[in-house]
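> forwarded from #structure-qc
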């Protein structure tokens, strides 16, 4: 089973629409004498990747373009998507247009959102945001001191830019130009982050496998369930 599949199975609750926090009960410390011994080894063997270099681990993205613009102020949404896709693919980042089974730092969501309208008989006004995010969680607590762990789910922003436009006619060219600039900046940031020693260590040791899509995950789950029913 490929690694992406393993992570998909871990995130099955999220995909099924579950939410909340998981509380763990008392558990064996396994091969460790106590929890402190386990935590020390875990700390000693952990490599930290700084926030500014997080984009260096990205290998694929789920591209989402949201057009919430009225009055024909934006008519080239497909061109925006195509421009982003072409630049990222040329930079070695695979671009998917269908949802991933699990959103991870290696395969986050890249979202372009445009909101706008025409002001009376005047110009078109639009707000544009481009961000890269993945699902995250933080474990709080301790088996020894809080009798369980609290897992807090959320979203982690790896990269983000936004701008406001006002143009007569439409905002097509202005936004296309801005998206071009942002995508250039993103690919440059990724290339720079990949030179970080800790990122290089990660890329060397982490399997370079294609992410599993939500559709593939559902097919796999149906196959597994059919085996159980037999």
């Amino acid at each position: 089973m490929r690694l992406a599949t393993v992570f998909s199975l871990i995130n099955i609750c999220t995909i099924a629409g579950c939410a909340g926090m998981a509380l763990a009960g008392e558990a064996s410390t396994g091969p460790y004498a106590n929890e402190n011994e386990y935590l020390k080894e875990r700390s000693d063997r952990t490599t930290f990747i700084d926030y500014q270099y997080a984009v260096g681990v990205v290998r694929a993205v789920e591209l989402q373009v949201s057009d919430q613009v009225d009055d024909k102020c934006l008519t080239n949404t497909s061109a925006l998507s195509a421009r982003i896709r072409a630049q990222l693919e040329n930079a070695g980042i695979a671009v998917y247009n269908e949802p991933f089974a699990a959103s991870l730092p290696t395969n986050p969501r890249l979202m372009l959102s445009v909101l706008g309208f025409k002001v009376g008989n005047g110009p078109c006004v639009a707000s544009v945001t481009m961000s890269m995010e993945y699902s995250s969680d933080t474990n709080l607590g301790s088996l020894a001191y809080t009798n369980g762990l609290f897992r807090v789910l959320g979203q982690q922003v790896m990269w983000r830019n936004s701008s406001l436009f006002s143009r007569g006619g439409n905002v097509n060219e202005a936004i296309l130009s801005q998206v071009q600039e942002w995508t250039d900046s993103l690919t440059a940031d990724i290339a720079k982050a990949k030179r970080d020693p800790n990122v290089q260590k990660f890329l060397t040791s982490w399997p370079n496998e294609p992410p599993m899509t939500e559709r593939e995950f559902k097919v796999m789950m149906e196959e597994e369930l059919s085996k159980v029913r037999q």
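QC bot note: Strands lie at 60-69, 94-96, 109-118, 124-142, 148-167. Residues 3-26 have pLDDT under 50 and may be disordered.
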